[in-house]
TrEMBL record:
InterPro entries per UniProt: Dimeric_a/b-barrel, DUF1330
Species assigned in the record: Sorangium cellulosum (Polyangium cellulosum)
Protein name: DUF1330 domain-containing protein
Domain DUF1330: 35-109
Pfam families: DUF1330 (PF07045)
Amino acid sequence: MITITPSDLERFLHEDDGKPVVMLNLLRFRPDGGRERYFEYIALARPVLARHGGEILYAGDGKTALCAESGQAWDCVALVRYPSRRAFTDMIADPEYHRADPVRLAALSEAVLQPTHPLG
Protein backbone atom coordinates (compact mmCIF):
# COMPACT_ATOMS: atom_id res chain seq x y z
CA MET A 1 0.00 0.00 0.00
CA ILE A 2 1.36 3.44 -0.85
CA THR A 3 -1.59 5.69 0.04
CA ILE A 4 -1.80 7.00 3.61
CA THR A 5 -5.38 6.81 4.88
CA PRO A 6 -7.05 8.96 7.55
CA SER A 7 -7.15 5.93 9.87
CA ASP A 8 -3.40 5.43 9.30
CA LEU A 9 -2.79 9.04 10.36
CA GLU A 10 -5.05 8.73 13.38
CA ARG A 11 -3.18 5.65 14.59
CA PHE A 12 0.17 7.34 13.84
CA LEU A 13 -0.73 10.47 15.81
CA HIS A 14 -2.16 8.47 18.71
CA GLU A 15 1.41 7.44 19.51
CA ASP A 16 2.82 10.98 19.20
CA ASP A 17 4.97 11.81 22.22
CA GLY A 18 6.21 15.08 20.71
CA LYS A 19 9.70 13.67 20.25
CA PRO A 20 11.55 13.39 16.95
CA VAL A 21 10.79 10.38 14.80
CA VAL A 22 12.89 8.77 12.08
CA MET A 23 10.79 7.27 9.31
CA LEU A 24 12.18 4.19 7.61
CA ASN A 25 11.07 4.23 3.97
CA LEU A 26 11.23 0.96 2.04
CA LEU A 27 10.46 1.67 -1.60
CA ARG A 28 9.71 -0.45 -4.64
CA PHE A 29 9.61 1.49 -7.92
CA ARG A 30 7.26 0.90 -10.81
CA PRO A 31 9.19 -0.75 -13.64
CA ASP A 32 8.19 1.91 -16.19
CA GLY A 33 10.35 4.82 -15.03
CA GLY A 34 9.40 4.80 -11.37
CA ARG A 35 12.91 5.54 -10.16
CA GLU A 36 13.13 8.66 -12.34
CA ARG A 37 9.68 9.82 -11.22
CA TYR A 38 10.69 9.32 -7.59
CA PHE A 39 13.60 11.74 -8.09
CA GLU A 40 11.06 14.25 -9.48
CA TYR A 41 9.00 13.71 -6.31
CA ILE A 42 12.04 14.36 -4.10
CA ALA A 43 12.76 17.62 -5.94
CA LEU A 44 9.16 18.75 -5.36
CA ALA A 45 8.87 17.50 -1.77
CA ARG A 46 12.27 18.50 -0.36
CA PRO A 47 11.36 22.20 0.19
CA VAL A 48 8.13 21.17 1.95
CA LEU A 49 10.03 18.66 4.07
CA ALA A 50 12.54 21.34 5.11
CA ARG A 51 9.80 23.86 5.88
CA HIS A 52 8.29 21.38 8.35
CA GLY A 53 11.65 20.64 9.98
CA GLY A 54 12.30 17.32 8.27
CA GLU A 55 15.56 16.12 6.80
CA ILE A 56 16.71 13.15 4.76
CA LEU A 57 19.34 11.40 6.89
CA TYR A 58 20.13 8.68 4.38
CA ALA A 59 18.89 7.38 1.04
CA GLY A 60 20.39 4.50 -0.88
CA ASP A 61 19.72 1.97 -3.60
CA GLY A 62 18.76 -1.47 -2.40
CA LYS A 63 21.11 -4.19 -3.59
CA THR A 64 20.67 -7.96 -3.51
CA ALA A 65 19.39 -8.90 -0.06
CA LEU A 66 21.85 -10.84 2.08
CA CYS A 67 19.16 -12.49 4.16
CA ALA A 68 15.48 -12.04 3.30
CA GLU A 69 12.38 -13.95 2.38
CA SER A 70 11.30 -13.85 -1.25
CA GLY A 71 9.78 -10.47 -2.10
CA GLN A 72 11.46 -8.60 0.76
CA ALA A 73 14.19 -6.92 -1.28
CA TRP A 74 13.62 -3.19 -1.86
CA ASP A 75 14.73 -0.83 -4.63
CA CYS A 76 15.52 2.03 -2.26
CA VAL A 77 15.79 2.65 1.46
CA ALA A 78 15.60 6.07 3.09
CA LEU A 79 15.70 7.42 6.63
CA VAL A 80 13.89 10.72 7.11
CA ARG A 81 13.88 12.58 10.43
CA TYR A 82 10.91 14.69 11.54
CA PRO A 83 10.77 16.86 14.67
CA SER A 84 7.59 15.01 15.68
CA ARG A 85 4.83 12.88 14.26
CA ARG A 86 2.71 16.04 14.08
CA ALA A 87 5.36 17.66 11.86
CA PHE A 88 5.02 14.72 9.45
CA THR A 89 1.23 15.02 9.31
CA ASP A 90 1.48 18.81 8.89
CA MET A 91 3.85 18.25 5.98
CA ILE A 92 1.55 15.87 4.12
CA ALA A 93 -1.37 18.26 4.71
CA ASP A 94 0.61 21.14 3.16
CA PRO A 95 -0.94 22.24 -0.20
CA GLU A 96 2.52 22.26 -1.81
CA TYR A 97 2.99 18.61 -0.77
CA HIS A 98 -0.35 17.80 -2.42
CA ARG A 99 1.28 18.77 -5.73
CA ALA A 100 4.20 16.39 -5.08
CA ASP A 101 2.29 13.37 -3.79
CA PRO A 102 0.77 12.30 -7.16
CA VAL A 103 4.32 12.02 -8.50
CA ARG A 104 5.22 9.77 -5.55
CA LEU A 105 2.17 7.62 -6.20
CA ALA A 106 3.07 7.31 -9.90
CA ALA A 107 6.64 6.31 -9.00
CA LEU A 108 5.96 3.53 -6.50
CA SER A 109 4.42 0.10 -6.75
CA GLU A 110 4.92 -0.63 -3.05
CA ALA A 111 6.18 1.16 0.05
CA VAL A 112 6.55 0.73 3.78
CA LEU A 113 6.72 3.79 6.04
CA GLN A 114 7.87 2.63 9.49
CA PRO A 115 8.24 5.21 12.25
CA THR A 116 11.17 4.52 14.56
CA HIS A 117 12.56 5.89 17.82
CA PRO A 118 15.99 5.30 19.34
CA LEU A 119 16.30 2.27 21.56
CA GLY A 120 16.61 2.86 25.27
